[in-house]
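Forum > Structural Biology > Help requests

Title: Can anyone predict the 3D structure of RidA family protein?

Hi all, first post here. I have the sequence for RidA family protein but no way to get a structure on my laptop. I'd be grateful if someone could post the structure tokens.
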Amino acid sequence: MAGRIEARLAELGITLPTPAAPVANYVPFTSLAGGKLVVVSGQVPMREGVVAYTGKLGNTVSVEAGQQAAQLCLINVLAQLRVAASGDLDRVTRVARLGGFIACQPEFTQHAMVMNGASDLAVAVFGEAGRHARSTIGVPSLPMDAAVEVEGMFELD
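Reply #1:
Sure, ran it for you. Structure tokens for RidA family protein below:
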């Protein structure tokens, strides 16, 4: 039977994908503090093996598309987190931190608005436990020309 978080994802119309394999020499997540803390590596807006949002904010990518990209990145973070939580997202007691990297033109300043795509989804999925600390920075480029990348830190029971 699906847990509370899986049911909430279904209500939101979200199906978590099979987690993507790392594209370089790193692991998709690490567990610390005896398994109570999980750090998920940065995830790009991959859908069915293809980066769904490419380019730069302030140039070829709109803020709205950037928000959708950030949301898709978080969906991919959650797919990795589910593996880290032994298949049970109900074990997540807090979204501790999200980090966002926004590929953008130097004059772009709406990084926070883009990252809200991920942050708003974290709260929609986990409720108050989804409220988190956050950093969002603009970068000149990301792997595979992704428009956004999101990483996360989570507390488990």
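The first helix runs from residue 4 to 11. The beta strands are 29-32, 37-43, 46-47, 50-51, 92-103, 133-139, 148-156.
Shout if anything looks off.
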